[in-house]
Amino acid sequence: MAKRNYGEILKASTKLGLTSFGGPTAHLGYFREEYVVKRKWLDDKAYADLVALCQFLPGPASSQVGISIGMLRGGIFGGFLSWFGFTMPSVILLILFAMLVSNAGFDSGWIHGLKIVAVAVVAHALMGMSKTLTPDLTRITIALAAAAVILLVPTAWAQIGIIILAGIVGYALFRKEKAPEAVKLALTFGKKTGIAAWSIFAGLLIGLPLLRPAIDSALYAIFDIFYRVGSIVFGGGHVVLPMLEREVVPGWMTDDLFISGYGAAQAVPGPLFTLSGYLGQLMDGGFGAVVAVIAMFLPSFLLVIGTLPFWSVIRTKPGVQAALKGVNAAVVGILLAALYDPVFTSAIRGPVDFAIALAAFAMLVYFKLAPWIVVLVTAVLGAVAYAI
């Protein structure tokens, strides 16, 4: 049965990978239309539960929802095909873009325009996330405190510490609230496979950094960086920006190249985590790109496989849901800090740049133009402003 589904899984996910513009929230809308409404692979209740699961886990929520649906339809290999179809189009485009910008003849004015559009995109994402994840004064306070700490202590370890502390605070404050009921999901693998996936996930997360000083290899270092970031980033693709920036700038590339890649990632369909292909290409060529993409998404596979068999139990634990509320509030704070540094500080050099950023923000929020259109317009305006 699963084998007969492989072709349709790949076809459906590739279609989404070529057409899903607009970021994680839009992706979930596209998925529902394709998998629930058109193909009827699952109903709304099961889909909502998968979305809840993937928002609970670290990593790219939309990609994990796609992986989960593929696994329900075609087992673990079905999950891989679903990820491959949804992810590869934007990976290829961003790798090509990295090859272009690494050419010394590429006009730096266009790069500056892509940096400016990143300001608008992060501000837009922050506005949307704050409405959902910080709806009350308590969680707003957690977010502001997280932002202040990250700005004062700009390290990757500080971000991890803030996430852990926010989870503890969330548990203390919200544990008495009632958790929702879960929907039972039909899987082709069980709890033993889930435990094995969690063991591999934890082993790599702990072991890779410990062995890194003893292994003099750029590819190993790339795998360690992207696996670690993919394992701990809550809140979706936009939050990966500050975590990756701490890891790769200035050791592997300039701030300009990093931010321009983030801007370019807004112009392609698919998940924002495919930025890893762009960064890996700049860090160590084609092999670097492949290693970065695999390492970035591997935690998502392991976490989905590890958690799906236990989700019906985890979903009903108020303490788990309470901790997640604190973590999500801290994620908003981390993104707020990133909006200032490195996004705003590296892109806005004066009033003209700020005016262009405001125009890009208005195009996204009020005129509701497609992100790829906003990116192209802003890149042109940035290039013109740079040339004047």
TrEMBL record:
Where does the chain cross the membrane? 80-104, 110-129, 141-174, 194-211, 218-241, 287-314, 326-348, 354-387
The reply to whether Membrane figures as a keyword in the UniProt entry is: yes
| Domain of life assignment | Bacteria
* Membrane-topology annotation of the record: Multi-pass membrane protein
InterPro entries found in the cross-reference section: Chr_Tranpt_l_chain, Chromate_transpt
Q: Where in the cell is it found?
A: Cell membrane
User: Does the entry feature the keyword Transmembrane helix, yes or no?
Assistant: yes
Q: Which UniProt keywords apply?
A: Cell membrane, Membrane, Transmembrane, Transmembrane helix
Read off the Pfam families from this record: Chromate_transp
User: Where is it chiefly localized?
Assistant: membrane
Question: Would you identify the family this protein belongs to, as annotated?
Answer: Belongs to the chromate ion transporter (CHR) (TC 2.A.51) family.
Q: What is this protein called?
A: Chromate efflux transporter
Protein's organism: Planococcus chinensis
